[in-house]
Design goal:
The complex is a heterodimer of chains A (98) and B (389).
Chain A lengths: L5 E2 L15 E3 L2 E2 L9 E5 L9 H5 L5 E4 L2 E4 L9 H5 L5 E5 L2
Parallel strand pairs in A: 1-3
Antiparallel strand pairs in A: 4-7, 5-6
Chain B lengths: L1 E5 H12 L3 E4 L6 H12 L6 E4 L3 H13 L4 E6 H6 L1 H9 L5 E6 L13 H4 L7 E4 L3 H16 L7 E6 L7 E5 L3 H7 L15 E3 L8 H30 L7 E4 L6 E5 L4 H13 L4 E6 L1 E3 L3 H7 L5 E6 L9 H12 L6 E5 L9 H13 L5 E3 L9
Parallel strand pairs in B: 2-3, 2-4, 4-5, 5-7, 6-7, 11-12, 11-14, 14-15, 15-16
Antiparallel strand pairs in B: 1-8, 6-13, 10-12
Helix pairs in contact in B: 1-2, 1-7, 3-5, 7-9, 8-9, 11-12
Classes of the chains: A alpha+beta (98), B alpha/beta (389).
């Protein structure tokens, strides 16, 4: 099972909410983060064999395998293209963002 | 047990008694002996710590921070260029509130390259968020090694602690030192416990970024914690005296200042000579006194102003210069005096840079010139009248 952190609702921190040290509850993302992506990976489900190489190599952990196929979380993908490079069957192409 | 030890050796003995779990350090003159002694102690089994040989000072403090983030007691030591090289990490450690203890052997900074003592290295890092203490002798060095952990790790403080020893003058000279027993040390220093750690049972997001909305609050809290160290320093010294029989005097060490007309303010190992001169001047009818600053951070603004309130004139002697201004200790002292509404003239004496000797005669002259009012605002000891203008 793949456990992914969830995006927390925007929270206003009061003086008391701010901890003394830089440690706080884990397991949350504070915002989506993909704004600087200029190209996006697109999976051709027909070609994808679900080998999980892209899942292993993705530096941001945004790829999951669902029903045997790679699925990309575009809320956090930075568009680096490593998944496309590593994909042996050539199932991941990079398309320009519009 | 009485032992004949150098300042570095005494500090290493103090660290052995504090039982750190991780020591990560890179050797640099004149700190090297501390690292050597501790590695020998780990090797012979008298200190049960993980000794990590790192490739640089930047790594040394990063490694100590990693250990502290895993919830254990960490130690590192450095000097001069090494301290400057780890400067980036100093702010990480204090901002992350990791109560690491570091010994710094005060040494000049390049160029020109120089291995001898002055205090420009640590004083350049006053704003890094570390508690800064300056030892006068080997016994105080050992005692600070123990007390530093008590203060740094205290729940209300949780701030890293830098203990400074004058390079060579203190690190390499030998004195008779009382080395407490591990039982006594264990009674004084409780085991380190923290919530600020990596814990698989209670996962946390650590050492994160914080934007404009909360960053300022973190910094405020860091600042407030530094002030909370003041009562903890007193508490540590009180407990220390109960167990070890040696009483320290908090942020400052005042000698004959109560009724003094002329007070010399300084820090570190030179204070002993200054007190001797003040004693001699007293015999000649001059009401001289000496105030040694033990802690530069938190700065003893109130205690200092109160202790020198009788003075007609003050001298600040320091082994530091902030190029283009004056000695940084002088700046700090003046701010405290101004805050307390004091108007007695204060003069700055810069000396000992790059290890140059400050003599008996130099200190007599300091007292003479502040008494006669012939001192300039900033004076460079040993640089001729013509150049010194």
């Amino acid at each position: 099972m793949i456990i992914k952190p969830t995006v927390r609702e925007k929270k206003i921190f009061s003086f008391q909410d701010v901890p003394e040290d830089t440690s706080f509850e884990a397991g949350y993302l504070v915002s989506v983060n993909s704004g600087w992506r200029s190209i996006r990976p697109v999976v051709n489900a027909g070609t994808c064999i679900g080998c999980m190489q892209c899942y292993l190599y993705c530096p941001d952990g945004v790829i999951s395998i669902q029903n045997g196929k790679a699925v990309i979380d575009y809320d956090f993908c930075k568009g680096c293209g490593i998944c496309s490079k590593i994909c042996k069957p050539g199932a991941i192409g990079m398309e320009r963002e519009r | 047990m009485e032992k004949f030890l150098s300042g570095d050796e005494a500090f290493a003995e103090g660290i052995r008694l504090a039982c750190p779990d991780v020591i990560s350090a890179y050797p640099i003159t004149p700190q090297t002996i501390v690292v050597e002694k501790l590695s020998e102690m780990v090797e012979d089994g008298s200190l049960d710590a993980e000794f990590i040989h790192v490739e640089s000072e930047h790594s040394a403090l990063s490694c100590a921070m990693g250990a502290s983030a895993a919830g254990v007691r960490a130690f590192t030591a450095t000097s001069s260029q090494g301290l400057l090289y780890m400067a980036e990490c100093l702010y990480y450690a204090s901002g992350g509130r990791f109560p690491i203890v570091m010994m710094n052997a005060n040494r000049s900074t390049a160029l020109p390259w120089n291995i001898y003592g002055d205090q420009r290295d640590s004083l350049s890092q006053l704003d890094s968020g570390w508690i800064q203490a300056y030892a006068e002798n080997a016994q105080e060095s050992l005692d600070l090694a123990l007390m530093s952990y008590y203060i740094a790790e205290h729940k209300t403080v949780s701030t890293p602690f830098m203990v400074n020893l004058d390079g060579f003058i203190l690190t390499h000279t030998y004195e008779q030192v009382d080395v407490p027993t591990p039982e006594q040390a264990g009674k004084f220093l409780p085991p380190y416990e923290t919530e600020n750690k990596l814990d698989p049972e209670n996962p946390k997001n650590m050492a994160f970024s914080a934007g404009p909305d909360t960053n300022y609050i973190f910094k405020y809290k860091e600042h407030a914690a530094m002030f909370r160290a003041i009562p903890v320093i007193e508490e540590a010294e009180r407990r220390f005296a109960e167990i070890f029989g040696r009483q320290y005097s908090g942020l400052i060490d005042a000698y004959l200042t109560e009724d003094a007309d002329y007070i010399l303010i300084t820090l570190g190992s030179i204070a002993g000579l200054c007190r001797e001169i003040a004693g001699q001047l007293r015999e000649n009818g001059v009401k001289a006194g000496v105030l040694r600053i033990r802690y530069m951070r938190p700065f003893p603004a109130e205690a200092l102003a109160k202790a020198v309130s009788s003075a007609k004139a003050l001298a600040v002697l320091e082994k530091d210069i902030s190029f283009g201004n004056e000695g940084t200790v002088f700046t700090n002292v003046n701010s405290a005096l101004h805050g307390a509404g004091m108007t007695a003239p204060a003069y700055n004496f810069i000396g000992g840079l790059g290890g140059r000797n400050i003599s008996h005669q130099d200190i007599i002259r300091i007292f003479e010139t502040i008494q006669s009012g012939t001192a300039k605002r900033v004076n460079f000891i040993g640089i001729g009248e013509e150049e010194n203008s």
